[in-house]
Amino acid sequence: MLALGFANRFEKGSLLWWNADYTHYQVHDRIPDYDYYLFVEYDACIGGNGVRLLADMIADEADFVSHPLDAGPQWYWNRFHTGTYPAGQLRASLNCISFFSARALKHLAQRRRAMSVNMDETGFWPLGEAFVASEVAAADLTFVPLARYGDVSRYAWFPPILVTDLVLPVSGHTFVHPVLDQKRYIASLLRQTHFVRHYFMHGSLLRRELARFPGAVSRRQLYRAAMTRATERMRQTWGRP
């Protein structure tokens, strides 16, 4: 990624977690001869006829298909991006399943490279979910919501879906995220449940879910997860990513 001219910048997590869009530009660089590209992350699932889905997206002449997020003041990352996308310019999207035209990928890669050249002058480095949607809108490229093509009622960042619980409809398209194996499913519950201490409350959702996996989680892991979540809440209170 760095050899392609993209900055080694991220504000949280890791380079490719924060800049998930980098991988899209690498694919376009390595495989440049397609008009359209569809990306599906490892924990996302598309149910339905994939050939029909692509045909519909192409027929709509979409430059970008994704699930739009409300990037208003209530969005956690809003306040961090106001310096880059001020005065109503901020957009956001959940890009675990995303479709791009070649021209959209080319434009977005150019914008990331331009920012990378001047990264020392850039304050907060834009999160992929904010960067792609905002730059697509600024360039007047066509952004079509994923919901146009199917059911997105189970397409979010939380709660997770255990892969063995996944049931897809026999007709139509449905989009699901995140779909996880047992190990990742438990890790997601511990990492994302707002108050892990709820495990110790009789009848709580977290307690019921973990009861499905006897012996898989120790009390030490629960205490560690609770402390991690408490630290995260304190960071959010202080306005840190």
Task: Note down, in words, how this protein is organized.
With 241 residues, the chain is an alpha/beta fold. The protein is 36% helix and 17% strand. It contains 8 helices and 9 strands.
Brief characterization of the structure:
The chain is α/β, with parallel strands linked by helices and 241 residues long. The protein has helices at 15-18, 22-30, 50-59, 102-117, 128-138, 182-192, 205-210, 219-237; strands spanning 36-40, 45-47, 64-69, 92-101, 143-145, 151-155, 161-162, 174-177, 179-180.
User: End-to-end distance, in Å?
Assistant: 23 Å
The figure for the number of domains is 2
Shape: globular
Name the assembly state: single chain
Low-confidence segments, ≥5 residues, pLDDT <50? none
* Percent of residues in beta strands: 15-25%
The total count of helices amounts to: 8
Q: Major beta sheet, specifics?
A: 4 strands, mixed
Q: Can you give the helix content as a percent range?
A: 25-40%
**Rg of Cα set:** 19 Å
Structural class: alpha/beta
Mean pLDDT score: 92
Topology pattern, helix = H, strand = E: HHEEHEEHHEEEEEHHH
Number of strands: 9
Largest sheet: spatial strand order: 1-4-3-5
List key phrases describing it.
globular, 241 residues, 2 domains, 17% strand, three-stranded mixed sheet, alpha/beta, four-stranded mixed sheet
